[in-house]
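Whiteboard transcription, Tuesday session. T.W. wrote the structure tokens on the left side:
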């Protein structure tokens, strides 16, 4: 295939992923926005970059054929124990915002769709930081210069 055609196709796909992610970020009832709100309520700091796990499901057991494309896109293939049954877990670095979470999920869905697959967000791979760590990061509500 012509290299220019490959490049144009990649640009079009990227624009489509960005458009879908932008829509998910501004739409108040989007699944990505709901997921970020749920994770924030669970103690994950919104806007921080973390490792997020995704579940890939394949209809025809074509997981082994699709995984090189997923790896090439920057995702790390995790649990392959159920690959012969069509399920694989992958991990990627994602900022916990609706835009970034939606873009990563759309990208994974686009990568695995030709192989009869779909992707779903599982969530961050590590537990949320303790509340004390989050309190240290939070800006002070006290006005500066005030002595108690």
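and on the right, the sequence the group agreed on:
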């Amino acid at each position: 295939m012509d290299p220019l055609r490959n490049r144009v196709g990649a640009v079009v796909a990227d624009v489509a992923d960005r458009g879908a992610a932008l829509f998910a970020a501004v739409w108040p009832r989007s699944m990505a926005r709901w997921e970020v709100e749920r994770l924030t309520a669970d103690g994950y700091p919104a806007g921080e970059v973390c490792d997020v796990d995704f579940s890939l499901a394949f209809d025809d057991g074509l997981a082994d054929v699709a995984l090189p494309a997923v790896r090439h896109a920057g995702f790390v293939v995790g649990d392959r124990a159920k690959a012969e049954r069509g399920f694989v877990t992958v991990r990627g670095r994602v900022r916990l915002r609706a835009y970034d979470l939606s873009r990563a999920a759309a990208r994974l869905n686009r990568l695995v769709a030709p192989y009869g697959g779909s992707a779903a967000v599982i969530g961050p791979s590590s537990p949320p930081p303790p509340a004390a760590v989050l309190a240290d990061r939070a800006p002070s509500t006290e006005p500066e210069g005030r002595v108690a």
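Someone added at the bottom: Residues 132 and 138 are 10 Å apart (CA to CA).
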